[in-house]
Fold this protein.
Amino acid sequence: MAHTKAKGTTKLGRDSTSKRLGIKLSAGQIAHPGNIIIRQRGTKFVPGTGVKIGNDYTIFAILKGKVTFEKKKLPQFTGKLKDKSIVSVKPI
């Protein structure tokens, strides 16, 4: 015989840890090779010169320089143009 009569259980008591996404270095800051500039899901920001993109869409510097951001209309896979932010590292 159970000693607790009517006790509900919760199935919603779990939460995942935050992934700390976002911009890590802003425009004008100095980036060294290997520095992470942006952590993102998908390609909201696309890589320009002086940066590369990782398997998890992380954009990181490959040379020392200043971080710059610019907006450009880039074609999607459907041929439609969409505004994208291009991240670059200009050597100093």
